[in-house]
Amino acid sequence: MKRETIPVSVIIMTKNEERRIRRCLEGVKAFDEVFVVDSNSTDRTADIVNEMGAILVNFTWDGKYPKKKQWCLENLPFKHDWVIYVDADEIVTPEAEAEIKKLFQKKPEADGYFAGYDYIFMDKVLKYGHRMYKLILFNRNKGRFLDYDDLDAMNMWEVEGHYQPQIYGKTEVLSKHLIHFDHDSLFDYFAKHNRYSDWEAVVRNKGLFSNLNESQIAIRKVQKKIFNKMPMKWVFAFLHSYCLKLGLLDGKAGFHYALARSMYYWQVGIKMYSLNSANKDRAL
Fold first, then answer.
1. How far apart are CA 107 and CA 82, in angstroms?
2. Alpha helix (H) ranges present in the chain?
3. What is the pTM of this model?
4. Is 195 helix (H, G, I), strand (E, B) or coil?
5. Is residue 184 part of a domain?
6. Orientation of helix 186-205 relative to helix 251-283, angle to 10°
7. Is residue 1 part of a domain?
8. Residue 1 above 60 pLDDT?
């Protein structure tokens, strides 16, 4: 008997992900359609995708909008109106799968759903500190990734930055979590922070980060507005993760995660300072 599948199209974006893509694909077997949109990988990513029966689509960015996530919405030959974005370093847990399946046994009540992540740092699943939420499951006819004038961000790449899609309708939050293996090594983790802080410094410098039209969980929208007005964001980021969100209960990993999050915002701050200084010099 054929197993009943979830009527949702999965989108996984890759570039040289041979170490992680198999585990990710194992986690989305219950979904009816799986696209892997690959950016000219030079390792075995494509071979593994083909072995596992997912639909492999090549993507070459032209340096313009749309970037990769929105390009997928506009160009993939979907069978379904609903899509879910899963990164190659993420796993849809059996519990999250069951919750999503239940949603589609009847008509979903919202147009988009946020998911929380159990974050793995220094080989430890963090239970405290700071939970990341992303809007990953939505009706593709009711959402899009907007353009935020970030093409001049140094060292940024083809994928949209740290913001959510805009959903034209109601959003809710899934109760079950996915797992996020954020990095293969601390080198990868800090390299990603370096790229993202370049992007965020440019966007914040243009005054766009406090006015993003992305969909957001209500409480987080308020938190972001307050955080955006704070000086010395790096100090607050540490205190928020380690003290207010009880990251100290995660032991050594909790301390280092809070410190790393703090250093990310320190990077953003000095990069904004550098950009402002360069702009003043050009104006003279």
1. 11
2. 21-26, 45-51, 68-75, 94-103, 186-205, 218-228, 233-239, 251-283
3. 0.90
4. helix
5. yes
6. 40
7. no
8. no
